[in-house]
Amino acid sequence: MDAIAVEDLRKTYRGGVEALRGVSFTVQAGEVFGLLGPNGAGKSTTVKILTTLSTPSAGRAQVAGRDVVREPREVRRRIGCVGQSSGVDVNSSGRENLLLQGRLHGMAGPELGSRAAQLLELFELAAAGDRMVRTYSGGMKRRLDVAMGLVHRPVVLFLDEPTTGLDPESRANLWSEVRRLAGEGLTILMTTHYLEEADQLAQRLAIIDRGQIVAAGTPDALKGALEGDRLRLELGDAERAAAAEPLLRATEGVASVLRDGAVLFARVAHGGRAIPVVVGALERAGFTTEEVAASRPSLDDVYLHATGHTFSEGDAAEKPRPRP
Predict the structure, then answer these.
(1) pTM to 2 decimals?
(2) CATH number of the domain that 231 lies in?
(3) Collapsing DSSP states into helix, strand and coil, what is residue 265?
(4) What sign for the dihedral angle of Cα 182, 188, 193, 199?
(5) Using 50, 70 and 90 to split pLDDT, how confident is the model at 312?
(6) Which of 74, 102, 105, 322 is most buried when burial is the number of CB atoms within 10 A of its CB?
(7) Concatenated DSSP letters for 230-272?
(8) Are residues 74 and 167 in the same domain?
(9) Is residue 258 domain-resident?
């Protein structure tokens, strides 16, 4: 049985704003699954529905074998959730936060005390366990957030943008914790807008764009489906790039072209051999490239290929939109 099964999930807010437009995916038991997309693409809305904090307008979803609409209490017993914002009480100690979270799940006595001590040890917070959380670093608070989501031993853990705002060292430490939890067989659904994070941690992922899944699979399979290399050509001006686009499309060896402002992206068989051909064709037509680079396929290329715009452009533009 899949740990999470989502079928044609839709969410329309008051005023006709469509946040989800038919999202479907499954997460296998014991898998780390990444939901990747820019801010406003629908990731958090999906998590809110799967954690019973919101109801869908249409479609269905099951988590740990329970329907999120018909059996919300049963779902909550089986899941842990770490939201984008920290849920810790900074005026209590780390241990007190864990104990309170356990009591909310019906735990008590020696079992709860032992579980809190175990989690403080596992997340390298034992030495700071009895200190006020307001004295913790950002990385320590985030590790405590994750520990609180695990107090009651859930079978599925939701991590919504878990490393947003963390410094590189704290992010790397949290990545290690996610890998450790995955190694213990915990099912994890993680939303992120960091391409590298999804590539590093997710065994499978789905890319969401404007409330729809546009690509899904393993990171390697998604990147491998894009043959050849990508050329990135910076022309310095959006109008010049628009004028050069038809010429680039007609250049021998160029399979496809996409434009993002003053930058042209070309798919070619071999980047090193294509650069002098492409740059020469543009220069003969009077277009000077300010910068050119070749790279192997990345998740950014997968997103660009699936949506027609770059990830950063989607991050700026993709907000829930009124129904046309």
Answers:
(1) 0.84
(2) 3.30.70.270
(3) strand
(4) positive
(5) low
(6) 102
(7) EEEEE-SSHHHHHHHHHHHHHSTTEEEEEEETTEEEEEES-HH
(8) yes
(9) yes
